[in-house]
Amino acid sequence: MVYDVDTDRIERQLKVLRECVAVLEETKRRRGEREGDPVLFFAASRALHLAVECMIDVGTTMIDGFIMRDPGGYLDIVDILEDERVIPKEGAERIRELVRFRDRLVRKYDELSPGEVEDHGDQSELLSSFDKWVRDYLRQELGT
């Protein structure tokens, strides 16, 4: 079967994801030197929010391009990526946690504490793994 997967779009989305990882790592590195700094809090919050959006957008692009089943929502996108073996089970559960936390980042930002953002923002390894899982799947399915 010939697929129409927008690999250029996926590459742009993964580039932004890598930039989010860099920001999260930098805010983590600076945490001790400037405790309570609102700039670091906002940078980490926004980078985490964008990282989740990137994963969802990549998932949507892949689902459309590979003609996978239609998702019913953000968590369903993660389920489909897991079912199609784009991401492993253990990674999928951690991504679901981030997708759930996204709601707080977007809708309940006024209730967020720096500790919550730090707890959820310490996901550089997972985010980098997502990038690798997607690339491995594309290579396997498209030979790219």
From TrEMBL:
Organism placement in taxonomy: Bacteria, Bacillati, Bacillota, Bacilli, Bacillales
Cellular component, GO annotation: toxin-antitoxin complex
Family designation: Belongs to the HepT RNase toxin family.
Keywords per UniProt: Hydrolase, Nuclease, Toxin-antitoxin system
Protein name: Uncharacterized protein YutE (UPF0331/DUF86 family)
Taxonomic superkingdom: Bacteria
Pfam family, one: HepT-like
Residues annotated as signal peptide: none
Keyword Hydrolase applies: yes
Keyword Methyltransferase assigned: no
One Gene Ontology molecular-function label: hydrolase activity
